[in-house]
Amino acid sequence: VGLTQQKFGWLQGRFEDASGVNFNRDYPDLAALAGPRLEGRLGPDAAANVAAIRAAMAEVLDELPAPDRLTALRRALMRLAFDADIMLDLHADNEALLHLYIGTPLWPDAQDLAAEIDARAVLLAEVSGGNPFDEACGGPWWALAKAYPDCPIPPACLSATVELRSNDDVDDGLARDDAAALMRVLQRRGVVAGEPGALPRLTCEGTPLDAMQQVRATATGLVAYRARLGDRLRAGDVIAEIIDPLGPAVPVHATTDGLLFARHSQTYAWPGKVIAKVAGAVTLPDRTGLLLND
Q1: Which residues pair with 120 in a beta bridge?
Q2: Contact partners, residue 138, CB within 8 Å, separation at least 6
Q3: Ordered structural domains, the chain, with CATH
Q4: What angle, 0 to 180 degrees and rounded to 10, lies between the N-to-C axes of helices 133-147 and 46-63?
Q5: Could you give the C-alpha distances from 201 to 113, 177, 235, 246, 267, in angstroms and in order?
Q6: Rg for the chain (alpha carbons), in Å?
Q7: Whole-angstrom distance, CA of residue 85 vs CA of residue 138
């Protein structure tokens, strides 16, 4: 559906034309939909509980109405992924280092994924807001475990959004390396045959998504970055300056210590536009509610 959205010589793709809604938001909440059907169907056997939960999920997905193509797309994708042991949603950021978004209950078990793909940042959240695809697949497991504390319910789906660097990093050599790394993850977890070799060194720690600074412009003008991707910043460091040809430049500062892992390649900004992201370790007071930007 997104590939058909070719407007003004540019592939849009991120938002559906008719509604303006992000394709990667508002997936069905399977914990809320399937949870009531599990009364009397769960017991002391974790594997049996996983099977019962997946059966209930299949029932509610089959019953979901699809009045438009966006809803139909979401339902079709969920039907393909709801019973997966591993679900990796492959994305790219605007201009970024390779990073992961993953549910807090899946860490540190997912360190092998982060190490193998050489992730430079791992952003952790139990609920990020908006119910993106990876959270719609993985999140129901820890939500149902809380709803049924007397029944063993494991996090049966390793789900993550894998941000494969920048939108413009289209290179068949990189693609081969990334595919080989993901294949080694599957080999190491026994999903496919083969010898993955030694696990590479993990180059980052998981940090809370609500500790990630979404660096916002405070003025209108051209963005002149003063910090590069991969720079380790301290609170107060200048990340960029917003240049107004008719007035003074306005500095934009880091508000936390951390790694500058993403920037916006469109170097024109206005108040409130997210121009960069810094992976910090300490929760920021303004990071509540919806933790992902559309």
Answers
A1: none
A2: 87, 103, 106, 155, 157, 158, 159, 160
A3: 2-204 (3.40.630.10), 209-280 (2.40.50.100)
A4: 130
A5: 11, 16, 28, 49, 34
A6: 21
A7: 9
Q: Element (H or E) spanning 275, and its range?
A: strand 274-280
Instruction: Please say whether the beta carbons of 281 and 225 come within 8 A.
Output: no
Residue keyed to tokens 């999920």? 57
Residues β-bridged to residue 213? 278
- pLDDT tens across 56-67, in order? 999 999 999 999
List the structure tokens of 103: 């549910």
Is the pLDDT at 78 greater than 90, yes or no? yes
Write the DSSP assignment of 216-267 as a string of letters. Answer: E--SSEEEEE-S-TT-EE-TT-EEEEEE-TTS--EEEE-SSSEEEEEE-SS-
Each residue's pLDDT tens digit, 175-220: 999 999 999 999 999 999 999 999 999 999 999 999 999 999 999 9
Between CA 186 and CA 124 the distance in angstroms is: 22
Hey, is 202 helix, strand or coil?
Answer: coil
Q: Are 78 and 72 in contact (CB under 8 A)?
A: no
Task: Give the tokens for residue 111.
Answer: 């360190």
Q: What is the pLDDT of residue 160?
A: 98
Query: Is 124:103 a contact under the CB 8 Å cutoff?
Result: yes
What pLDDT shows up at residue 193?
A: 98
**How far apart (Å, rounded) are the C-alpha atoms in residues 69 and 83?**
23
pLDDT category of residue 5 using cuts at 50, 70 and 90: confident
Three-state secondary-structure class, residue 97: coil
DSSP 200: P
Strand ranges across the sheet with 99-102:
86-93, 158-166, 99-102, 121-124, 206-208
